[in-house]
Write a structure and sequence with these properties.
The chain is an alpha/beta fold and 191 residues long. The protein has helices at 17-25, 58-67, 86-94, 105-114, 129-139, 144-158, 173-189, and strands at residues 6-10, 32-34, 37-39, 53-55, 70-77, 80-85, 98-102, 119-125, 166-169. Helix 1 crosses helix 7 and helix 5 runs antiparallel to helix 6 (144-158).
Amino acid sequence: MKKGKLIVFSAPSGSGKTTIVRHLLGKEDLNLEFSISAASRPARGEEVNGKDYYFISTKEFKQHIKNGDFLEWEEVYRDNFYGTLKSEIDRIWEKGKNVIFDIDVSGGLRIKHKFPEETLAVFVKPPSIDELKIRLKKRSTESDDKINMRIAKASVELATAPQFDKIIKNYDLETAKEDAYQLVKEFVSES
């Protein structure tokens, strides 16, 4: 099986990484397919199992960890696990496509360390912590406590930005999308 490229987008929640990744998936010349993460939480809002995440129970998730089925995984909050199944990467590479991830900072860096040559790790930087809080509140999907947890985590995540290959500043979404496209296009065209 020929290995494709791995393109990791990481950022604090609310930075715009999901919007940027969706934009890139629409660019056929990049030959991308989305890596669907596994999550031990229930679906939120319009999320669909097998499209947005593979929603599995905490018990099943822990069994996959024991079996060594994950490329990377993390307990993001207590009993709230996220991870990338090795089988997901194999599935996409078998189709001859490059894998794009919308993934938390720790997971993104783990993938970069495991596949340093095949991976482009991009950090999406928000304008400010205050702007992040506004964006998270606008979503109306989580309680104030959850939002405050995400904001506290964001400060720690922002400190990891220099460990990524590239940083995209998302002060203007259209500019950030174009910057991301140019970065990925250059990376996937390298042999």
